[in-house]
User: Fold this.
Amino acid sequence: MKKVKLLIAALGVALVASLALAPAANAQEVRSLMADPMFVDGAGEQEFTITGSGWVSDSIAILPCNDAKDYAQAAEKGTDACDLGNLAIAPVSGGEVNLTVTFDVPADGMCIGAGALDQSEVGTFCIGIGAPVPPPGQPNTGAESGLIAVIGISVLAAGALVVGMTRRRAFVS
Assistant:
């Protein structure tokens, strides 16, 4: 009987741990866009290497958006914030984008916009002065520490079951 209880406890711990370690389902492919460097020391002409993944189009347009300083402004102003006369066409190969461009960065930063020519796909990456511009909705959520807590509680519960069973056996003998 004790072996059955230990087996059930072990299976319960394994079930909780497997649920905690299961990855979240992704509903759709996310298109990424990133510039290197992510920030500059000051205003002026700067060379950026633009990379991205998840793009479906054969090519995308990449252009500076000097009137957008962060992601909220870029979303609000859209293409009105961008310099359409200074765009570069980047080929897409296997969903990947890689292009080196030179843009004149204003003193308060800027965003770089990218998108398919039919506007079916768009992306933005903002360049900060002195520090990167944090993307919206991307705080450190502590998801990893939550996972560790769930596993720790499961192991603690299993240990308590084992200790409880061994104490009962000691009193019965």
Summary: Confidence is low (pLDDT under 50) at residues 24-28. The chain has two domains: 32-129, 141-172.
